[in-house]
Specification:
Elements (H helix, E strand, L loop, with lengths): L1 H22 L9 H11 L6 E5 L6 E3 L4 E5 H4 L4 H18 L3 H29 L6 H37 L5 H40 L1
Parallel strand pairs: 1-3
Antiparallel strand pairs: 2-3
Helix pairs in contact: 1-7, 2-4, 4-6, 4-7, 5-6, 6-7
Length: 219
């Protein structure tokens, strides 16, 4: 778990470093993040999704509930390789939604249950540990709830990788980036994806820890 914490810090630092580096390189096409997002949506026949600006850095996301592509202020008006990568990636999620991508549907279906689980999970785990010598039931419930969050983390991986794949294919085939800029965009999205990989592994490690406590009690 300590190794995963260190890996998480390293990946986060690397992502921010790469994004900063590629944000300083002007895009040859001169298109802004907003323009790239709007064109990708249009090219995929998506007319009911809005592209809006949100505050913060690396706060970019697609909201399937209100059908909005939310681009951070460092992407929305920016004209760089990093902005192109992020804008196209978030639109990749919109394309997944429009095409009913199976993993995205599965992940979305899990959200209501996950919302309830995350609200009570830590308390149940704490109670389970405190009562472990008396009864394993609370901890077993906590482990089951944590297992749901871990499953969600792993279901997120193909969703993120597929969105990046769609983004890179589109910006390349439509002349949004040069070959050199494509390499930068691909590298930026690779490090972004690694944050989800580390998060999933961290969730799995924590699940195994609580599971070992439960199995130890049964033994």
């Amino acid at each position: 778990m300590i190794a995963i914490m260190l890996a998480s810090w390293l990946v986060s630092w690397r992502l921010k470093s790469k994004f900063k580096q590629y944000s300083q390189i002007p895009l040859s096409s001169g298109m802004s993040g907003r323009e790239i997002a709007e064109q990708m949506l249009a090219d995929n026949g998506i007319t009911d999704v809005r592209v809006i600006s949100v505050a913060g850095r690396l706060t970019d996301h697609y909201n399937p509930t209100d059908k909005t592509v939310n681009l951070s202020e460092y992407v929305y008006d920016a004209r760089s390789a990093a902005a192109a990568a992020v804008a196209a990636h978030e639109c990749g999620h919109a394309v997944q939604h429009a095409k009913a991508y199976s993993f995205l549907k599965f992940r979305s279906a899990m959200v209501p249950a996950l919302s309830i689980a995350s609200r009570y999970m830590q308390w149940i785990l704490l109670i389970g540990i405190l009562m472990l010598q008396t009864t394993p039931v609370p901890l077993a419930i906590g482990v089951a709830l944590f297992g749901l969050t871990t499953l969600f983390s792993f279901i997120t991986l193909p969703v993120e990788f597929d969105a990046s794949k769609r983004a890179l294919a589109w910006i390349s085939s439509n002349g949004i980036v040069t070959q050199q800029e494509y390499g930068m965009a691909k590298d930026a999205l690779k490090w972004a994806a690694m944050t989800y990989v580390v998060a999933a592994l961290g969730s799995l490690a924590t699940l195994l820890y609580y599971g070992s406590l439960l199995l130890g009690r049964r033994d």
